[in-house]
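The material for today's practical consists of a large collection of protein records. Getting from the letters to the tokens is the skill we practise here. To make this concrete, we reproduce a full record directly below:
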Amino acid sequence: QVDLVESGGGLVQPGARLRLSCAASGRTFSPRAMGWFRQAPGKEREFVGVINYSGLFTRYADSVKGRFTISRDNTKNTVYLQMNNLKPEDTAVYYCAAATGTSTNNDKLSDFRSWGQGTQVTVSS
């Protein structure tokens, strides 16, 4: 199975930027759609966005659309989440996940089989 490791989280003030990285290893021979999810304390894990296998297409949750951008570099087996204009409501543990499919139709928890351990993003003034 694919092993995923997130990095880049931290403590920032509202309006700041962060770029999260997700490095993949293991079964990376056939690229799959990659998703970003987040989970705040006491809340369910929430879909943030997804990028298709090639990086050509992306789709985002309404709460982050226009502020977050997902990209990937398959030569480096890495997917990124660029987060701009961060808000306190963005505070959560952010997870990357590998989907079973290849398209941006993958957006449910059940669509993803491999998960990273998460990286903490805290937005506070």
